[in-house]
């Protein structure tokens, strides 16, 4: 056959003439060749698709569920970047920056504009699918005024970069390849809803979910954490509102939006490092970002929380501060104020950025003013920098920052009568919701003890200084056996500031890092919060690496082994706590091959929570008893953790009827809790809760490890007071008979020794009096060590075990002259519905509770 084809091509046949015409160099045959190539490729595609379709139908590919996530993420990126560039170049008239830095500032301003658009939509009730498309489309259209030209400038800048030669070329290619692998691995570790962190499952994502469901900004009275700044949640609300996605895809959308900001941190590192190197181009410098691999480990990984959103603003804040401090230009005053305000919209840990900016600007202003004052006095020359100019520029920074962050404070003032709610309740005495002890709870019970600054006075400040040098070596808490995984090259390369050329800018950035870590040490020392400023020390490290390398071959003899050691030591960090997330991603990717094509098979996440949504009416208001990982329950949730909200207050309640009335007064329609796990804060709450649920509630449904109870339609009969509880070996209480309201002690707020609540009748030693106390009790709380301590009483027949916790069991009296209430459910062996493993250390005051620090 091949022989016949060669004869045909070599003869004067029509096929030979056709091939000769196609290979001609004239324009018409060139067009024919293009058409022929296109037809041949499309024909091959059709045939290939038919073959593949027979094995795995094309309509079932996972691609069609991932493509909307990529498309919407790109829409957000381009719309924010475009409008930000317009604001930067045409609004502020800043047009001389390197393209990478210009893009970073453009993204900063554009993100703020996008979030302002979401706040506007939240006020007027436009958080709807149509607005989710129209608003970014409008921003993108406006951004076309500058976006194409910026892309052209960026391309020209990248083309102008000198490609390394020889050994350096191989080093550059290797670093770039490793960086690309790290990006892919980071994406896989953040792909599925199993990557969502603990905090994100109960307020970061649910805030966006609730805003989108309501179509507007709504108040949250059942948890104080919802009242902190939440720029990330406003973006998540957009992700929950856009059309064309499943609920599970929307959860993944939140993770994709967070990854956009992680990439923004990478760009920030490259832009800041280039500034620190006085504009010197170093290809592949962005890869230094992954020399600090803690973002791969549990608690610091991208998981839908806010730390990486805050971290995005670190580089813009420092760049704007350093450029502003050069001449106190009002344009950079606006840019610095907007960057600081954007950080404040993310979370209150923006005080780190404020400290870094102050560390750069304040000494520079003082130095210039002192110098110019000296020049004016001694040489009678006009000062180059007037005090008035510095003051006006400072007022611009402050005004723009407060104006940028204003939407959050205005929202709180409207809903809570307190712009900084839940803080300053003693100042804003009409804060809502508020009860007699809410300010005390916020001040003393809310903070998580392991994170509070250590020491007082000078000792605390010495510890803060030490943290600057040890933060990467000594984790303050860990899910990876306290293995240091932050990355230590910043600390180890600090001595290079003594010998490198061009040291002023890197030294100033290192000083700013010190200020940020000092502020961190004096506020709340949760290691993951350092992600909010880590881009700055990474950029300093990148600059120090370049300058140390440029010292010469002998310096490299020490530098290369140091960097190699960091790489080898931390090479397995992504796998410390990432295998479960990675396995989830690989399982989803493999779902097409495994023929798990349906959405129900492919997206099996939080099924119990989705079932609870279907089982409750849209206007349900669910009380979650000390249970927080509620993502997927698309109903209003009220938490009852005493230190973390001020709507539900158990202390004044004296019986089940009062508890019922209290729940009804705040609109509770359903109760959700995991039986036997996460006990209430107080024994009082545990007893009254079980009395109401087991004695009077009849509509109970089980969803995995969760129990859903419908509030009784009829109230319990009036309470027979006092409702008395016998405590035997109960944690924190002397044995004896108590009125239930006396059992209100929160573990974190235990009174001083000797001032504990005293029983109305102490537990006696003789059996007859013991029987009398037992007969007077309506409930009994028995600690886990009661029997071992000789406080063993027979409760069978008169009492039944309503709920067994790790440290105690609640027994309720059988109803006299009535049938025994429905027996309680046995506690599950483990809570499998709480989502991913927690992202914070356990709070010792919460038994069996995976408690994490707040994000406030």
Question: Can you offer a commentary on this structure?
Answer:
It comes from Sorangium atrum. This is Glycosyltransferase RgtA/B/C/D-like domain-containing protein. Residues 813-856 are annotated as: Disordered. Keywords: Membrane, Transmembrane, Transmembrane helix. The chain crosses the membrane at residues 35-58, 70-92, 104-127, 133-151, 171-189, 228-247, 259-277, 354-370, 390-410, 482-500, 529-546. This protein is mainly alpha-helical and 856 residues long. It has three domains: 2-55, no CATH class; 64-153 and 182-431 and 457-575, no CATH class; 607-813, no CATH class. The chain is built from 28 helices and eleven strands. It has helices spanning 2-10, 14-22, 27-55, 63-91, 99-124, 129-143, 147-160, 167-189, 204-214, 231-241, 247-276, 307-312, 314-327, 330-346, 351-379, 387-416, 438-445, 457-470, 489-493, 504-521, 535-549, 553-570, 579-590, 599-602, 607-615, 656-665, 683-696, 767-776, and strands at 621-624, 636-639, 670-673, 700-703, 706-710, 724-728, 736-739, 761-762, 779-783, 799-804, 808-813. The strands form two sheets. A six-stranded mixed sheet has the order 8-7-6-9-11-10, with helices on both faces. Strands 2-1-3-5-4 form a five-stranded mixed sheet, with helices on one face. The protein is globular, with a radius of gyration of 32 Å. The chain starts with a helix and ends in a 43-residue tail after the last strand.
């Amino acid at each position: 056959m091949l022989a016949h084809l060669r004869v045909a091509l070599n003869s004067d046949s029509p096929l030979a003439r056709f091939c000769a015409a196609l290979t001609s160099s004239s324009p018409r045959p060139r067009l024919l060749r293009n058409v022929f190539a296109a037809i041949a490729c499309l024909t091959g595609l059709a045939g290939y698709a038919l073959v593949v379709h027979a094995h795995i139908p094309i309509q079932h590919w996972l691609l069609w569920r991932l493509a909307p996530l990529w498309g919407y993420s790109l829409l957000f990126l381009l719309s924010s970047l475009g409008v930000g560039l317009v604001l930067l170049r045409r609004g502020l008239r800043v047009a001389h920056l390197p393209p990478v830095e210009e893009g970073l500032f453009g993204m900063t301003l554009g993100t703020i504009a996008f979030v302002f658009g979401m706040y506007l939509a939240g006020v007027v009730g436009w958080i709807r699918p149509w607005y989710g498309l129209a608003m970014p489309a409008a921003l993108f259209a406006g951004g076309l005024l500058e976006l194409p030209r910026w892309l052209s400038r960026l391309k020209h800048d990248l083309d102008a970069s000198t490609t390394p030669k020889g050994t350096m070329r191989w080093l550059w290619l290797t670093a770039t390849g490793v960086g690309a692998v790290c990006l892919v691995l980071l994406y896989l570790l953040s792909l599925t809803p199993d990557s969502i962190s603990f905090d994100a499952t109960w307020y970061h994502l649910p805030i966006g979910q609730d805003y989108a469901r309501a179509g507007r900004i709504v108040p949250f009275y059942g948890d104080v954490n919802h009242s902190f700044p939440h720029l990330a949640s406003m973006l998540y609300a957009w992700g929950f509102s856009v059309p064309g996605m499943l609920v599970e895809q929307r959860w993944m959308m939140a993770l994709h939006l967070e990854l956009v900001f992680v990439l923004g941190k990478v760009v920030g590192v490259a832009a800041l490092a280039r500034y620190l190197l006085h504009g010197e181009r170093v290809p592949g410098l962005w890869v230094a970002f992954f020399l600090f691999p803690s973002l791969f480990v549990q608690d610091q990984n991208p998981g839908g929380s806010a730390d990486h959103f805050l971290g995005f603003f670190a580089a813009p804040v420092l760049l704007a501060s350093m450029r502003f401090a050069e001449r106190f230009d009002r344009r950079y005053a606006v840019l610095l104020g907007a960057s600081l305000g954007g950080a404040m919209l993310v979370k209150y840990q923006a005080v780190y950025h404020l400290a870094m900016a102050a560390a750069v600007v304040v000494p520079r202003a003082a130095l210039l003013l002192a110098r110019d004052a000296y020049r004016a006095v001694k040489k009678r020359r006009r000062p180059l920098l007037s005090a008035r100019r510095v003051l006006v520029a400072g007022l611009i920074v402050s005004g723009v920052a407060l104006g940028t962050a204003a939407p959050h404070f205005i929202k709180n003032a409207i809903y809570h009568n307190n712009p900084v709610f839940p803080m300053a309740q003693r100042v804003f005495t009409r804060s809502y919701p508020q009860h007699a002890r809410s300010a005390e709870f916020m001040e003393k019970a809310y903070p998580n003890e392991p994170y509070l600054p250590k020491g007082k006075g000078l000792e605390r400040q010495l510890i803060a200084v030490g943290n600057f040098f040890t933060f990467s070596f000594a984790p303050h808490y860990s899910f990876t056996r306290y293995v240091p995984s932050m990355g230590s090259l910043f600390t180890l390369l600090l001595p290079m500031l003594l010998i490198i050329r061009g040291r002023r800018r890197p030294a100033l950035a290192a000083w700013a890092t010190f200020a940020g870590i000092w502020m961190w040490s004096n506020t709340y020392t949760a290691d993951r919060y350092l992600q909010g400023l880590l881009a700055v020390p990474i950029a300093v490290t990148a600059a120090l690496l370049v300058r140390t390398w440029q010292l010469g071959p002998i310096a490299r003899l020490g530098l290369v082994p140091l960097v190699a050691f960091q790489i080898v030591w931390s090479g397995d960090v992504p796998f410390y706590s990432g295998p479960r997330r990675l396995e989830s991603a690989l399982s989803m990717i493999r779902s097409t091959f495994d023929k798990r094509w349906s959405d129900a098979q492919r997206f099996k996440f939080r099924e119990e929570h989705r079932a609870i949504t279907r089982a409750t009416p849209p206007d349900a208001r669910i009380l979650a008893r000390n249970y927080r990982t509620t993502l997927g329950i698309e109903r209003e949730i009220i938490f009852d953790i005493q230190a973390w909200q001020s709507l539900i207050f158990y202390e004044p309640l004296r019986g089940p009827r009062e508890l019922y009335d209290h729940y009804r007064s705040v609109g509770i329609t359903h109760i959700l809790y995991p039986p036997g796990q996460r006990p209430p804060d107080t024994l009082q709450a545990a007893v009254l809760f079980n009395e109401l649920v087991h004695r009077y509630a009849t509509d109970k449904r089980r969803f995995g490890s969760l129990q859903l109870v419908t509030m009784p339609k009829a109230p319990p009969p009036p309470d027979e007071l006092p409702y008395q509880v016998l405590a035997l070996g109960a944690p924190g209480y002397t044995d004896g008979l108590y009125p239930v309201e006396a059992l209100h002690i929160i573990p974190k707020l235990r009174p001083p020794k000797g001032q504990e609540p005293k029983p109305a009748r102490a537990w006696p030693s003789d059996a007859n009096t013991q029987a009398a106390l037992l007969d007077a009790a309506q409930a009994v709380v028995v600690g886990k060590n009661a029997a071992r301590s000789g406080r063993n009483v027979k409760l069978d027949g008169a009492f039944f075990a309503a709920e067994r916790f790790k440290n105690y069991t609640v027994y309720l009296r059988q109803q006299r002259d009535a049938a025994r209430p429905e027996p309680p459910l046995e506690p599950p062996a483990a809570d499998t519905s709480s989502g991913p493993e927690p992202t914070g250390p356990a709070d010792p005051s919460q038994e069996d509770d995976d408690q994490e620090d707040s994000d406030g």
